[in-house]
Amino acid sequence: MATLVGFIFVLVVLLIIFEMLRRRHLREKYAVLWIVIGIGMLVLVAFPQLLSWASALLGVQVPSNLLFAMALLLLVLVCLHLSFEQSQAEDEIRVLAEEVGILRLKVLELEAHQETDNAPDAGSQLPPPGSPPQKPA
Questions:
Q1: Cα separation of 69 and 80, whole Å?
Q2: Alpha carbon distance, N-terminus to C-terminus of the chain
Q3: pLDDT score recorded for residue 6
Q4: Residues whose CB falls within 8 Å of the CB of residue 81, separated by 6 or more in sequence, listed in order
């Protein structure tokens, strides 16, 4: 019974991963990682003696302890990978923000230069339409 529940659980997880991938809620590079994890879980559910064999091989007395250790190691590796991705994204955002700042400065300089080139003489300056007449000082 426990094997059947585990098998159904793993299939549901894999279906969720594929559905998230199909709807583009999960990128392909992350989906591959989760699909590999799901297939590994499926193999352990289908052949529970593999966990007992691996725990005996590694000298772990209780197979569930090996499973928890593997899960912990996997979570640490996923966190490390996501930290790496976040660091790269922060670097790219910083570079883009610097480029936007430089472009904004160039646009302001071009606008200021254009205003000085198109400014009429001070004596022939007409008031904008719709403004009240000004009295000479």
A1: 16
A2: 99
A3: 87
A4: 33
121 has a pLDDT exceeding 90: no
pLDDT in tens, 48-69: 899 999 999 999 999 999 999 9
CB proximity list for 66: less than 8 A, separation 6 or greater? 51, 54, 55, 58, 60
Cβ contacts of 50 within 8 Å, gap of 6 or more: 43, 44
Report CA 115 to chain centroid distance, whole Å: 43
Q: What are the pLDDT digits (tens) for 72-108?
A: 999 999 899 999 999 999 999 999 999 999 999 999 9
Local structure of 7: helix, strand or coil:
helix
Distances (CA, A) of 37 to 1, 41, 77, 121, 131: 22, 6, 12, 74, 72
What are the residues whose beta carbons fall under 8 Å from the beta carbon of 52, sequence distance 6 or more? Answer: 63
- At residue 125, φ and ψ (nearest 5 deg) are -75, 125
CA-wise closest residue to 46 among 2, 76, 86: 2
Q: Which of 21, 54, 25, 55 is nearest to 38 (CA)?
A: 21
